[in-house]
Write a structure and sequence with these properties.
The protein is 36% helix and 16% strand. By secondary structure, it is α/β, with parallel strands linked by helices. Strand 8 and strand 9 form a beta hairpin.
């Protein structure tokens, strides 16, 4: 093990005062510092793991890892550009116009969780309930009147035959290519735009057909191993290497837990990638020795259902042994396929003693949580950018807070007897302008987690503005990911006995009421009368419910 890395992380749990930020150069070089946030000691943003459901890390006996975008951190701009370019070449091969060669990839266009409506060719950003937050036809954001033509209630229910959900980072090139194709045909003089596609003479191309062609053009690159081969030939170009990965896997074993790799990649590709990440960290040690169990060709999410036949792979010939594997799973061996029931039985896991780490919200997180009740750790690499923008745009958030206070003051004294509505149009316009500025700082579709401005903390209270609805993707993260972070390496910043404790989930009557505000006279009178009728003696000053 690289001794400098080992020493740096040993020092990170020293007796330094965590309530102050150290300026010691050696301490800063470890990238580990705790910041004081609203009176509470917090780790640096980039090192934090965020918690949706509480659990004790010492209860975890098995740490499972996906490979792509989890252990192997892809350089997404380079990787996505390659995927995008190869897909365009394939589309031209099957008959699409040569003009699409002019498409230029925009890495800031898509966010995870977008819905593609195959019927109308629209990319949709929706909230957890199907309410449409943003609708883009090609590169045209539809305004209210245009949106109502397709979706009268600004609502769409999920239908697998009609909707394709962009779950992963892999699908960013697909989302952008879909927008390019729809935009091209919708604006071409050679084609007439119809409600569900475009036509030219006797030719009709539906938006569903466009989706199928784009999806097939990308799938073709994986089926033919084109993408895998290009990455394997030049791993350094596409994947970042971090020696702390070996340290994390060693720490897991030092704390009497086991680690396993569970990936959909085949052994040939997995061996190339994992060798690059781990083989030269410690002399005479191969990457398989860092894991207790290795399973490739898992076919997730099928792995969490009926699965496939479990076979052992000959690591010399890369061929699968005949028959199904029925014996125990051994270290330094590689297995293919199987399903979660068989796998759990062979490793003697009961479900909640597993923490599975992956980037695919559906294939890794939702299925493992619903089927086997594994604890789940979602990797969201784009979280680093989200947090950076969130802090960099503090001045815009401050402006929003001032506008919110101004709006509240204008409306606070009105009740059901009021007839004349005050003119708040100027304030609303200013708020919308700020919302747009903040959204554009993230991407074409704004933040991955919200539409409009993110909630922010002022004087201990969370403030939200119109347009700050949680997205469909964010709701899935909240519901199914016990914890989430930008990288699995952030586990190094927590002891293995750590209690991940979720923040209280407050209802509106709890989050918007200040318990220190006094009751109004009318409320006090009602409470006193109620208590008197029930013959109970209560100090009315203890009652704290007030209207915000």
């Amino acid at each position: 093990m690289n001794s400098s890395i080992e020493q740096s992380f040993s020092l990170s749990f020293s007796d330094k005062n965590e309530s102050t930020v150290s300026h010691d150069s050696q301490y800063d070089s470890m990238h580990y510092q705790n910041l004081q946030y609203h009176g509470q000691v917090k780790r640096e943003f980039s090192h934090r793991i965020f918690v949706n459901r509480s659990f004790q890390l010492s209860d975890i006996k098995f740490f499972g890892f996906d490979m792509d975008h989890t252990l192997a951190e892809y350089k997404t701009d380079t990787f996505d550009l390659m995927t995008f370019s190869l897909a365009i070449e394939r589309l031209i091969e099957i008959g699409y116009p040569e003009d699409i060669k002019n498409f230029k990839y925009d890495p800031n266009f898509a966010v995870r969780g977008l819905w593609y409506d195959k019927l109308y060719g629209n990319l949709l950003k929706v909230d957890p309930y199907g309410n449409i937050l943003i609708c883009s036809h090609g590169f045209k954001i539809l305004k209210k009147q245009e949106l109502h033509k397709f979706y009268p209630n600004k609502f769409i229910s999920y239908d697998a035959n009609r909707i394709s959900v962009q779950h992963t980072l892999y699908e960013h090139p697909e989302s952008y290519l879909l927008a390019c194709i729809v935009n091209y045909f919708s604006n071409s003089k050679e084609y007439e735009q119809k409600e569900t596609g475009v036509s030219s003479g006797n030719l009709f191309i539906s938006y569903k057909a466009m989706y199928q062609d784009v999806r097939a053009s990308i799938d073709h690159q994986y089926v033919t191993n084109t993408i895998q081969s290009r990455v394997a030939e030049n791993v350094e170009k596409f994947i970042s290497k971090d020696e702390r990965l070996a340290l994390l896997l060693n720490r897991i074993r030092e704390n009497n837990a086991k680690a396993f790799l569970l990936t959909n990649s085949d052994y040939n590709y997995a061996n190339r990638i994992m060798s690059y990440l781990l083989d030269d960290i410690e002399p005479s040690r191969n990457w398989r020795s860092y894991f207790d169990y290795v399973v490739v060709d898992a076919h997730k999410p099928l792995f969490f259902a009926e699965g496939t036949m479990l076979k052992e792979i000959n690591i010399e010939t890369y061929c699968k042994n005949i028959g199904s594997h029925a014996g125990p799973l051994l270290s330094d061996r590689v297995y293919s396929g199987g399903n979660v029931e068989v796998f759990s039985k062979l490793i003697n896991s009961h479900g909640k003693d597993v923490l599975y780490v992956g980037d695919h919200i559906f294939g890794d997180i939702i299925k493992s949580k619903k089927v086997r009740a594994w604890h789940t750790f979602l990797i969201v690499p784009e979280l680093s950018k989200e947090l950076s923008i969130y802090t960099d745009k503090h001045d815009l958030y401050s402006q929003m807070n001032r506008l919110n206070d101004e709006l509240s003051q204008m409306l606070i004294n009105f009740d059901s007897s009021s007839k004349d509505c005050p003119d708040i149009s100027k304030i609303k316009d200013k708020i919308q302008n700020l919302v747009h500025q903040i959204d554009m700082s993230y991407s074409y579709f704004g933040s991955t987690f919200r539409t409009g401005i993110i909630s922010f903390l002022i004087s201990g209270y969370f403030y939200l503005f119109k347009g700050s609805q949680q997205t469909y993707f964010a709701s899935q993260v909240t519901r199914y990911a016990d914890i989430y972070s930008s990288t699995c390496l952030n586990l190094l910043h927590y002891p293995f006995f750590y209690l991940f404790k979720a923040a209280p989930q407050l209802m509106p009557h709890e989050s918007t009421v200040n318990p220190d505000d006094p009751l109004s006279d009318s409320q006090n009178h009602r409470i006193n009368r109620t208590k008197s009728n029930s013959k109970q003696t209560v100090n009315p000053n203890n009652s704290t419910l007030v209207e915000n």
